[in-house]
Amino acid sequence: MSTQGIRMAVSSRGRRETGRTTAYVALVLMSIVVLLPFYYLVITSFKSFEEAIAEFKWLPATFRFSNYAEVLAIPGFDFPRYFLNTMYIFLMKYIGTMVTCSLVAYGFVRYHFRYKELIFAIFMSVLMLPGELLTIPLYEAFINLGWMDTYRPLFIGTYFATDIFTLFLFRQFFKSVPGSLFEAARIDGAGELRMYARIMLPLSRPVLVTVFLLYFTGTYNDIYGPALYIISEEKYVLAQCIGLIENLYNTGSQDFLTPFHLVAAATVFMILPVIAVFFAGQKYFIEGVSTAGIKG
Amino acid sequence: MKSIARREARNFLAFTGISLLGFAIFYVYPVIRTFYLSLTNTRVGVDAVDFLGFRNYEQILLKDPLFWHSMRQSFLFSFIAGPLSLLVALYAAMLLNRKVRFIGVFRTIFFLPFVIPTFAVASVFKGFLHPSSGIINRVLSYLGIQGPGWYMDSSSALATLILISSWGFGVSMLIFLAALQNVPASYYEVADLDGASGFQKFRYVTFPFISPVFFFNVVLATINGLKSFNLAFLMGRGLGFPANSTLLFPVYLFVTAFRMPYKLGYASALAWVFFLVIMALTGLNFLLSRYYVNEDVE
Predict the structure, then answer these.
(1) For position B197, which CATH number holds?
(2) What is residue B54's three-state secondary structure?
(3) How far is B294 from chain A (nearest CA, A)?
(4) Which residue from B12, B29, B108 is facing A107, i.e. has the nearest CB?
């Protein structure tokens, strides 16, 4: 190596050190920007109403832990109920999808049928459809069935294996199970359903966890469905109930009357379960999204 | 032999029959029915239905300023928000790829906003960006800057939506981080020996490697941005507040179909137009993708 080359390699190492310092500064600054809304949320949840609507101060005069109790005591605002409503919808959707998609995917992988690849390709093509193209006729149908203001419209589809993405996940997963397992089971005299229950289901735990996380956050996040079908306040889901607090003091037009301190306390209550689920399943979550993303 | 094939087919149908039925009920029927409705003036609670032919479509394209307005807002939103949040994501991923310490901590911090449900994001940012009691205008006032009205002002509300949605860059960051970690370290060592600057390393080593992943995700995010509904629905109080500035197309469609006077027929025509727009963009992307995907490094 020429002296010039050595000098350049050395100077590039020095440059890398300063580069790393710059990286730390940038990372810390970005973290502050990302975390600032969380700071606002938590600090506001401890403020008084007057402090919450006045010019922003970084700390409250006194930390009012009582805001959290106050949220739960607002008349007509039944937080545990909205939580249970949301969880009910989540469970109904999750069970429906798990049972039907795993059975259907098993059928697609296990048995020969001349047109099965074509059928699956047609299934996959609907992933491109915007939901708007499907909602209106279903809305009509659910009105005619008298299902308005019930939870059925929100989960009935999952009992027909309509979640094509989960179906795809199961199928990919089942494909990787070696056929010899089934030969062995068949020799042992296992029937079709028994092979599904004893071999496939226990093996598909990663899919069960991934879909659990997707459905939990997905149901939490769904605003479209509840806004369409849920009317009575006692049937509200979490996504809807925040509006009840925002408008608690609303006399018509004055925006500054939003009780931001109570909204913040309620929001903390609402995001705790998702954050807990996220940290519990972080490994699956991150692996899931990054591989799904790369495969495109 | 024939009986085996028949038994296989019977088992296949026994297991998959429910999905064929579901597909017919929840996908095939709605798509066809939506098209039929789009040719009528169907409304909820009105029994008399007229067949209009393509007059709804004519109305949309020629005489509906809100259609063009909401399409414009949606395109502005998705064509800025998509690339912007992915650039932030790429930058964060490149910082994390420098073998810094506490990478797990930073990764978790950056990913956290993605986990927060949109309705909570909306409620936090309504306070966070509130013109008089929010944090950001307070910080700006330290610098002697009079902060904008953010989501309260029709001139800044759409930009506010774009900024808020970029807050969730963490998920794309993970994708990019995984892609960056696939770049062989030896390439950087060679570049170092050649005395390449940081920018040169990015231009000639990093970028060619990750550009397929990057552009693929930009296009995906942009097309998905057109379908964006939740944030605009919540920040705009369900009707594009203030002054229709946050009336993204899906919000306009929702209001047309599911709020008084429940114009299901007209909204169905809107849905079909929307579908065609998305299909056109997807097709265009398919044609263009061979130009931006660098085959050499795949």
Answers:
(1) 1.10.3720.10
(2) coil
(3) 15
(4) B12
- Specify the CATH architecture of the domain A77-246: Orthogonal Bundle (1.10)
Q: Which helix (H) or strand (E) holds B15?
A: helix B2-23
**Cβ separation of A242 and B120 shorter than 8 Å?**
yes
Whether B254 has its CB under 8 Å from any CB of chain A: the answer is: yes
Please state at what angle helix A79-110 crosses helix A205-221, rounded to 10 degrees. 140
Backbone angles phi, psi at B203, to 5 degrees: -65, -40
| B239 domain-assigned | yes
Phi/psi at B51 (5° precision): -90, 125
State how far the Cα of B121 lies from the Cα of A274, in Å rounded to an integer. 13
Domain count, chain B: 1
In-domain check, residue B46:
no
Nearest-by-Cβ selection for B124 from A40, A106, A138 = A40
Residues 59-118 of A with CB under 8 A from B: 100, 103-104, 106-108, 110-114, 116
Report residue A274 as tokens. 């998702």
ipTM associated with this complex: 0.89
**Shortest CA distance to B161 belongs to which of B98, B89, B103, B230?**
B230
Mean pLDDT of B183-206: 84
Domain that holds residue B73: 63-297
Mean per-residue pLDDT of chain A: 86
Q: What is the mean pLDDT of residues A150-169?
A: 96
| B119 assigned to some structural domain | yes
Q: Does A271 touch chain B (CB under 8 A)?
A: yes
d(CA B170, CA B193) in angstroms, rounded, equals 33
Return the structure tokens found at B236.
């705009």
Report chain A residues whose CB lies below 8 A from the CB of B115: 217, 274-275, 278
Give the mean pLDDT of A255-276.
88
Task: Say if the Cβ atoms of A157 and B92 lie within 8 Å.
Answer: no
Distance of CA A142 to the CA centre of its chain: 25
- Which of A56, A93, A106, A126 is the best residue to mutate to test the B interface, defined by the most B CB atoms within 10 Å of its own CB? A56
Chain A residues inside the 8 Å CB shell of B258:
139, 227-228
A256 touches chain B (CB under 8 A): yes
User: Residues B46-67: pLDDT tens digits?
Assistant: 888 899 999 999 999 999 999 9
The whole-angstrom distance between residue A38's C-alpha and the CA centroid of its chain comes to 19
Asked if the structure places residue B4 within a domain, the reply is no
- The alpha-carbon gap from B70 to the nearest alpha carbon of chain A, in Å, equals 15
pLDDT for residue B297: 43
**By the CB < 8 Å criterion, does B71 face chain A?**
no
Q: How far apart are CA B59 and CA A181, in angstroms?
A: 61
Radius of gyration of chain B measured on its C-alpha atoms: 25
The answer to whether the beta carbons of residues A113 and B12 sit under 8 Å apart is: yes
